[in-house]
Amino acid sequence: MSEEPEPQGCSSDWFLLVEEQFPTGDGQGHGPDPGSLEWRSVVEFKLGIRDDPAIPSLESDQWCAYIDKHFVKPAG
Quick one: which of 34, 39, 47, 74 is 20 to 30 A from 25 by CA? Predict the structure, then answer.
């Protein structure tokens, strides 16, 4: 039996992984900086979870862990 990988934390590499799976830009190079609060808000919007009280605060590392556990596909 294999164990689930630990959720990723907030890191530059993780932000880029999420951006690849859930692009926040307009396709022309415009969009919020990955990892910024604006970017996190757009990710929530794209996932349809904005204003869900179960989601940790945008400012917290727990937010990244939650998104990683519930939505992000492992790289590779």
Answer: 74
Distance in angstroms (rounded) separating the CA atoms of residues 22 and 25: 9
Q: pTM for this structure?
A: 0.84
pLDDT category at 9 given cuts 50, 70, 90 is confident
| Contact between 23 and 32 (Cβ < 8 Å) | no
Secondary element (H or E) of residue 53 = none
Q: 36 with 11: CB under 8 angstroms?
A: no
CA count, 13 A, side-chain hemisphere, 45: 9
Please state at what angle helix 12-21 crosses helix 37-47, rounded to 10 degrees.
30
> Taking 50 as the threshold, does the pLDDT of residue 4 lie above it?
no
